[in-house]
Recover the amino acids of this structure.
């Protein structure tokens, strides 16, 4: 008789489906719940090279490539004139020297279909949880979810993985606090045709504006365009997402000349509330992963990587100890604590890196480097430029975001090289 899986996963986003597939690849089956009510568009379209490495390890890069736009790098424009262009070739040897831009629903389907091929059961159901404060387990599936997932006669999964994204089902239910980042921006985005893109094909472009920042993510046959606006500026650009996107594209000094022939081909979607990290990611019988644990500001696109990295980390845990880990609560708790520590370290490192882009230090650093090179041409300034570019590339691609040397280098440079008043002028409002 087929045994009911011992792991239940809430959510078939990247975190949930990748985990289910990776577990199945190690002979451990799970049941994944999702109500399949996702919107037509989802954010998370720009991927970083560290994801390509994971896709290769999973053996599905070709499937993703088939639905994706090849992405050679990223460019940053500041409304005061500075431009920074990065090509992922600079991390060759450490990571694949490119990434992809993906229509997210299709990307999620690639992961889900792969998991299905490996025998994972997907159940169309929005799973409810029941809290058992202080108990072991501390939370479990409610009766409807147990039934929908095929558990009967008091049988239940030994581990519930909360991969429910921003719903943060477990944290909300258990009243787990979260540390929120300092910003309260709103993002609106949609897909367009007819926006000119005078860059390498697939290069994403981030523009710093007086009111926040915008993204241009080339996708197959269309462009994802989004704005991330601070609360003070919102009313000046209209009453809703449609009006604000339209006004920015019609009037912005950098964007308007490129967007004369724009045509919006989708509805406009809105996101608020990002930058958040839960105080706790696991307890007896459960663990949260991906956005359900926390999310980093999306300017450098780390979200899907964090979801996939967490999936790999959890799957590795079971690869090391086998499914019997589920029968050893103390050992499982220790392993989950180690997993949480790793995820927390990733979040903190990305958060620190993103802050340089918001508070003007990265653009000021770039300007200073360019100036020093002009003032003191020669091997030393060339070497400094090479080290700085590589350090930044290693961090922003996910190759070495957490590395102490890189973080120390950036901290040191911004302390000793930068003029704080210039960084202030360049900071996002
Ligand atoms: C404005 C913005 C732009 C972004 N841009 C990027 C980017 O360019 N690149 C990038 O990498 N990341 C980006 N991100 C982040 C990225 O979208 C997320 O980090 C990523 O989607 C997280 O994946 P996940 O699987 O954890 O959650 P999700 O993708 O949200 O998946 C969660 C799934 O769980 C389901 N679910 C919820 N509750 C239940 C339940 N009770 N039972 C069953 N299923 C449930 C949901 O329906 C959903 O399908 C962006 C985020 C924002 C806000």
């Amino acid at each position: 008789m087929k045994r009911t899986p011992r792991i239940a996963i809430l959510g078939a986003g990247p975190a949930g489906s990748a985990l289910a597939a990776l577990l199945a690849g190690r002979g451990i089956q799970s049941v994944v719940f999702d109500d399949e009510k996702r919107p037509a568009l989802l954010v998370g379209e720009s991927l970083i090279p560290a994801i390509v490495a994971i896709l290769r390890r999973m053996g599905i890069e070709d499937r993703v490539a088939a639905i994706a736009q090849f992405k050679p790098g990223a460019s940053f424009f500041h409304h005061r004139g500075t431009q920074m262009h990065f090509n992922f070739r600079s991390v060759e040897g450490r990571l694949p020297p490119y990434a992809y831009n993906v229509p997210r629903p299709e990307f999620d389907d690639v992961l889900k279909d792969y998991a299905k091929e490996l025998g994972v059961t997907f159940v169309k159901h929005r799973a409810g949880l029941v809290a058992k404060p202080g108990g072991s387990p501390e939370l479990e599936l409610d009766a409807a979810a147990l039934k929908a997932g095929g558990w009967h006669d008091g049988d239940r999964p030994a581990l519930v993985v909360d991969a429910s994204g921003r719903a943060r089902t477990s944290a909300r239910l258990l009243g787990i606090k979260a540390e929120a980042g300092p910003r309260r921006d709103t993002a609106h985005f949609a897909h367009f045709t007819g926006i000119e893109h005078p860059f390498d094909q697939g290069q994403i472009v981030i523009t710093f504006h007086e009111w926040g920042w915008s993204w241009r993510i080339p996708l197959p046959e269309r462009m994802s365009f989004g704005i991330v606006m601070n609360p003070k500026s919102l009313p000046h650009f209209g009453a809703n997402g449609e009006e604000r996107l339209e006004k920015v594209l019609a009037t912005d000094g950098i964007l308007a000349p490129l967007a004369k022939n724009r045509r919006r081909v989708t509805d406009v979607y809105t996101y608020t509330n990002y930058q958040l990290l839960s105080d706790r990611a696991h307890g007896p019988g459960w663990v949260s992963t991906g956005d359900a644990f926390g999310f980093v500001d999306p300017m450098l696109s780390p979200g899907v990587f964090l979801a996939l990295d967490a999936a790999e980390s959890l799957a590795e845990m079971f690869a090391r100890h086998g499914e019997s880990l589920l029968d050893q609560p103390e050992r499982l708790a220790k392993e989950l604590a180690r997993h949480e520590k790793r995820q927390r370290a990733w979040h903190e490192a990305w958060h620190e890196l993103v802050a340089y882009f918001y508070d003007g230090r990265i653009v000021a650093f770039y300007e200073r480097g360019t100036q020093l090179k002009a003032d003191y041409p020669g091997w030393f300034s060339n070497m400094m430029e090479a080290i700085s570019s590589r350090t930044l590339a290693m961090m922003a691609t996910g190759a070495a975001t957490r590395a102490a040397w890189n973080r120390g280098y950036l901290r040191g440079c911004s302390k000793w090289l930068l003029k704080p008043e210039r960084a202030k002028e360049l900071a996002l409002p």
In short: The first strand starts at residue 7 and ends at 10. The chain is about 40% helix and 20% strand. The longest helix spans residues 329-358. The pocket of flavin-adenine dinucleotide is lined by residues 10-16, 33-35, 38, 43-47, 126-127, 163-167, 169, 187, 271, 274, 290-292, 295, 298, 301, 303-305, 307 (CB under 6 Å).
